Amino acid sequence: MISFRPMCDSEYPAYLDYFITDYATxxxxxxxxxxxxxxxxxxxxxxxxxxxxxNTPGEVLLCILNQTPExxxxxxxxxxxPDLASRSVFIKDFYIFAAHQRKGFGKQALYALETExxxxxxxxxxxxxxxxxxxxxxxxEVTGFxxxxxNMSKTIKSKC
Length: 160
Description:
The chain is of the alpha+beta class and 160 residues long. The protein is 37% helix and 24% strand. It has one domain (2-142): Aminopeptidase (3-Layer(aba) Sandwich). The chain has helices at residues 12-31, 35-49, 105-119, 134-142, and strands at 2-6, 60-67, 72-83, 88-96, 124-127. Helix 1 (12-31) crosses helix 2 (35-49). Residues 2-160 form the N-acetyltransferase domain.
């Protein structure tokens, strides 16, 4: 069974290690930045978005737990921002650890989050997923998400 708990201060450095590297890879692949440029941008964005780490007001960082009769273990992370006025949340990051992928935990976590949010009055979950992230897109589609727009970008090349 999947459940959630707030991320602890002691878990935040490991979260940053995963997130910054993963996000820098996405930035580099999707926006054509060099590895060092993408890494610098990822570090700057996380510093801007979470200036107080797990205690940043308006941001929710959760550990995804798998509970079995024998044990409870962390299998991934959720980071989302609730918007009380629109009764929606925007998922900023969702990750199932590599050792736990392809076991249904992603789908279970999304359904559990939806149930938990519905019980507290939220009506919509929003997110953004990179075009080349086929596995994530599949999980979102089979759990009922639909495309509501398309992000596009173009790199401007200097003529000099």
